[in-house]
Amino acid sequence: MSDRVHTPVMVEECLAALLVAEEGIYLDLTTGAGGHAEAALERAPRARWLGVDRDAEILEIARANLARFGERVELVQARWGDLDRLLDERGIAALDGALLDLGVSSLQLDRAERGFAFSQDGPLDMRLDPRGGEATAAELLERATQEQIATWIRGYGEERFAGRIARAIVEARQRQPLRRTGELARIVEEVVPAPPRGVRRRIHPATRTFQALRIAVNRELEDLEGVLGILRRRIAPGGRLVVLSYHSLEDRIVKRFLRDVERADEFRRVSKKPLRPSEEEIRGNSRSRSAKLRIGERVRPEEVGATRRKRY
Ligand SMILES: C[S@@+](CC[C@H](N)C(=O)[O-])C[C@H]1O[C@@H](n2cnc3c(N)ncnc32)[C@H](O)[C@@H]1O
Fold first, then answer.
1. 1 vs 57, 108, 112, 117, 140, CA distance in Å?
2. How many domains does the chain divide into?
3. C-alpha 152 – ligand 1 centre gap (Å)
4. If 53 and its partner were Cys, which of 31, 42, 178, 197 is the partner (CB 3.0–4.6 Å)?
């Protein structure tokens, strides 16, 4: 794999929010290379850590990085949809905390052959779990109607030029099937208009299209809704749900979820506004710039009603 590293985002803030019980059982649903996991296991020497990721390849890196923690850590390649079964099999009824650090790792982005990056030419794949048997981005683009492609790019990429991009994709695939990230990036570049003179482009023109396809390929938003539904039942009273998101679609889902469970008197939001990385962190790690951290705490039985009383 790449020799570049993935720098974990808002580590201090995540650990301060997550580690509420010294001998707690914590679930990391986005283990990646294990950056947050390593920091947490060092900080909480008696905690147990169950690390899940859909990507077997990146989990191998985590395995090496976390080997020194021995039996305190268990790593499992799985989808979030399997969470109930994973916890039941291990006899874990309730968690002291769960961490979600959404999106993809820099290590995944940097590997051209995984097909996530417009900046490097590779197969148009984008599956987080290439062994999972789901359709690749190339297969989705081959089968979908122009309308469907536009809907993905508009909905999951929040791209203004989704209609034009979808039309250009369909025209290109009539000549020959789209197979490479480089081809897709070029098609998008050609149809997205340049910004007015004097205005600098903040992101590459294909950024939003690639984000949209990745979300569609991996059904990321459906999975996120699903896993939040499971965690709603699986976090112990006083336990924490800690979620880092990097774009507004994910953040909206998390925000609404926390609002709804607070209204239902099941969780309370630890702060109403999301936490943001410091300027210093953003300077050192540009990937952190869009991060938003939201924290929920499962209400203890004696507190039920307290959040509502406070509000009225
Ligand atoms: C931003 S990275 C996590 C980085 C990690 N916190 C670290 O410090 O190294 C997100 C990870 O979540 C995984 N992931 C995303 N969606 C998933 C899903 N639905 N099920 C399981 N893992 C998922 C990705 O494969 C990726 O490794």
1. 8, 9, 10, 15, 26
2. 2
3. 21
4. 31
How many Å lie between the centroid of ligand 1 and the Cα of residue 160? 28
Boundaries of domain holding 264: 11-107+221-311
- Examine residue 6 and state whether it is found in any structural domain, yes or no: no
User: Over pLDDT 90: what percentage of the chain?
Assistant: 83
SS3 state at 300: coil
Instruction: Answer whether residue 310 shows pLDDT above 70.
Output: no
CATH number at residue 179: 1.10.150.170
Residues 102-109 have a mean pLDDT of 89
If asked whether residues 92 and 227 sit together in one domain, one would say yes
Ligand 1: which residue has its CA nearest to atom 20?
A: 79
Which residue from 128, 131, 228 has its CB within 8 A of the most atoms of ligand 1, so it is best to mutate? 128
Going by C-alpha positions, the residue among 47, 24, 51 that lies closest to residue 37 is 51
The overall pTM is greater than 0.90:
yes
How far is ligand 1, taken at its centre, from the CA of residue 78, in Å?
11
Q: What is the CA radius of gyration of the chain?
A: 20
pLDDT digits (tens, 9 = 90+) for 147-173: 999 999 999 999 999 999 999 999 999
